[in-house]
Design a protein that fits this description.
The protein is about 60% helix and about 0% strand. By secondary structure, it is an all-alpha fold. It has a single domain, classed as Globin-like (Orthogonal Bundle), CATH 1.10.490.10. Helix 1 crosses helix 7, helix 3 packs across helix 4 and helix 3 crosses helix 6. The N terminus is likely disordered.
Length: about 140
C-alpha cells in the first residue's frame, strides 16, 4: 500500500473542492470504518504512529493524548456519517501557533492511511474518509 500513499494524498487534496455534507442517514462509511470501536482503534493506531514519528512527534509532546483520542474519534465518526457530534475546538483554534507545514500534514495523513490499512479498512472507504477530511488541510497548515 505504500506505493499508493502519494495517490491517496493527491486524492485527498483534490477532494478539498468536492466535500459536501454526508447525506442524513448515510452511515455506510461509518460502518466500513468499523463503527465507533473501529474508529477508536484507527485513531489509537494513528496516534501511536504519530507520537513515535521523529518528524512530527514533537507536535504531540504537550498534548493530552486521551482527550485528543476522544476528539479525533468524534470528528472521524461525525465526518463518516456516524451518530457522533464533534465537541472539540475548530481546526483553526486547535492548531493556532503550531506552524504546521505541508510535510507535517502529509505525514499525519500517511499515518492515518497506515492505521486504516492495519485495521483492514477497504481502500474505497479510506478514500471516502480522506475526501471528507481533506478540507481541513487549509484550516491546519500555518496556523
Amino acid at each position: 500500500m505504500k506505493a499508493a500513499i502519494p495517490f491517496l494524498l493527491a486524492l485527498a487534496l483534490a477532494g478539498c473542492a468536492l466535500r459536501s455534507p454526508a447525506p442524513p442517514g448515510d452511515d455506510a462509511l461509518y460502518r466500513a470504518l468499523g463503527g465507533q470501536q473501529g474508529i477508536a482503534a484507527i485513531v489509537e493506531e494513528l496516534l501511536v504512529r504519530a507520537v513515535e514519528d521523529p518528524r512530527i512527534g514533537r507536535h504531540f509532546a504537550k498534548t493530552d493524548l486521551v482527550q485528543l483520542h476522544e476528539r479525533l474519534s468524534e470528528q472521524i465518526c461525525f465526518e463518516a456519517g456516524g451518530p457522533c457530534s464533534y465537541r472539540g475546538r475548530s481546526m483553526e483554534e486547535a492548531h493556532a501557533g503550531m506552524q504546521l507545514d505541508e510535510a507535517d500534514f502529509n505525514r499525519l495523513v500517511e499515518h492515518l492511511v497506515d492505521a486504516m490499512e492495519a485495521r483492514k479498512v477497504p481502500t474505497r472507504a479510506q478514500n471516502r474518509l480522506l475526501r471528507r477530511l481533506a478540507p481541513m488541510r487549509a484550516q491546519v497548515i500555518h496556523r
